[in-house]
Amino acid sequence: MKGGKNMHVSVNTAIFLNEVQAGKSQLECLETLSGSPIDNIEVRGELFKEETKNKELSEINGLCKQNNWKFFYSIPEQLFNTNEVNSNLEKYLKMADDNNICQLKISMGDSEDVSDAQLKELTNLLNKYQAKVTIENQPNEDGTIDKFDKQLKKLKDAKVPLGYTFDSGNWYWIDECPSNAFDKFQDAITVFHLKDIKDKDTVMLGDGATDWKSLLRQLNPDIPVFLEYDIPSDKLNDQIDQVNTILNDRDSN
User: Fold this and answer.
1) Boundaries of domain holding 60
2) Cα separation of 33 and 15, whole Å?
3) Which of 34, 53, 248, 250 has its CA at 20 to 30 Å from residue 84's CA atom?
4) Strands, DSSP E only, in 111-200?
């Protein structure tokens, strides 16, 4: 925890989706959060314009330093594809180290036919760079509880140094229960992505079916919690405050 203080919520730039689609850059959106009670920010690879991406990453790195935020990056790809490891990974790891990005998130994909030799090669690659990589459960057949469990076990047995971003919303879209998934994977979680869902649509916290307060109270206190859904600007402070209240209560007890 930062300076002995309680943890604060973190934000993924999905919270600004409408504004980015209307033409704002992720940097411009994040600048509006300067001084806010947040710990980390996560940008999304698919929301950059290729021609301005490097400059923007450098400026976001500067903004993170000013605000004492840690810098995370979401890769819009999957790590495994049947019998292959994503060949773009090293490019992202270099980009991360160049911009002080501490963590990269990528979808798991399907590792079923990936060999032990390939996993060893992946381990060696991950160990060459400062940035950590986490895999995320996705709302598709590779992200069901059973399939994801098998894949996590395979990676653990091979001692591949990957973290796990638990996305609380993605379970709904494949008719799985987030609480069941949380119980199953709690010990593996290193990052938590928070959404509230109602009738398979993302809603504001408290308006959906997710028992999110209970999940946060059970979460290990050093695991960052990211808001990752489009939030109207007039509701953002309230959503941040709701999570910070729970984290503050949890960490004070």
Assistant:
1) 7-252
2) 11
3) 53
4) 132-136, 162-167, 191-194, 196-198
